[in-house]
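Changelog entry

Holo records now carry the ligand SMILES as an explicit input line rather than a separate metadata file. Below, a converted record for S-adenosylmethionine, shown in the new format.
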Amino acid sequence: MKALAFEIIGSILIIRDSANDRDLKEFAEKKMKRHPYIQTVMLQTSKIQGQKRTRELKFLLGNKNFETIHREHGNQYILNPLDTFFSPRLSFERQRIAGLVKESEVILNFFAGVGPFSIAIAKKQPNCLIHSIEINKKSCNYMRKNIELNNCEDNIIVYCGDVFDIAPHRFLNSSNRVILPLPLESKRSLPLAFKCLKDGKGTIHWQITDHLSSKVVDLNVVATSIEEIFAREKISTEHSISEHRVVRWIAPHIAHIAIDIELGQ
Ligand SMILES: C[S@@+](CC[C@H](N)C(=O)[O-])C[C@H]1O[C@@H](n2cnc3c(N)ncnc32)[C@H](O)[C@@H]1O
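Structure line, unchanged by the conversion:
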């Protein structure tokens, strides 16, 4: 039986490779036996797609309850993977960013999903205020539940709507840090994030996808894209890249990359 790519969200095993029915069943049964907490097995039948970044999933085996609670670093996230984006593969990135936040920061989490970045930060820095904007109503509802589940009601405020409508009206010149976990909107969201930094100073956690011929991120290419985006918007600011890393590989040479940009020091 060939090894199949998979991920586990709470009690749901999602098989990401297709195979014949017999191999899928054998793989699923083996995983369920080894990890008794797996209650449901689904097959991913599309890429992550559309503005809401969801995917099509086909039920294969087990229980037909698609709502689950995923536990990560002591935090809990309730969600339905049919309706919302969630990736356990971003777990390290959430903890990494949460570890950089200083006491009492005001943070903007654009593209907040069911809230995992905001919650990871709030749990590490309980004096921070995190404004979390998300367009998918179902994700917003789960984010509200997750805030309650993790006792972060005093730290996180949910705004259900489009970042590009909400932020220019409410958050210009407001925040110490902006998180942009949506590579698809990397070019449009970077200048808006800059305008939301208080006095043009702070940190932007930018995420992009790029074709890499080797495993190494070419910082000159990244720096040039940032310059071009700022120049197009007539933004002139002192900035530097303090960190960069490949978050995950999306395809053999396509990387999801995280870049930390320090501005206005
Ligand atoms: C890649 S997911 C990341 C979600 C979350 N940050 C996480 O790590 O689990 C991007 C999210 O952005 C939301 N989104 C896409 N376009 C948006 C927009 N213009 N305004 C607000 N949210 C948006 C999608 O619905 C999706 O939940």
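Spot-checked after migration. Residues 6-66 form a domain with the GMP Synthetase; Chain A, domain 3 fold (CATH 3.30.300.110). Helices lie at 21-34, 91-100, 116-124, 137-149, 163-170, 186-196, 219-232.
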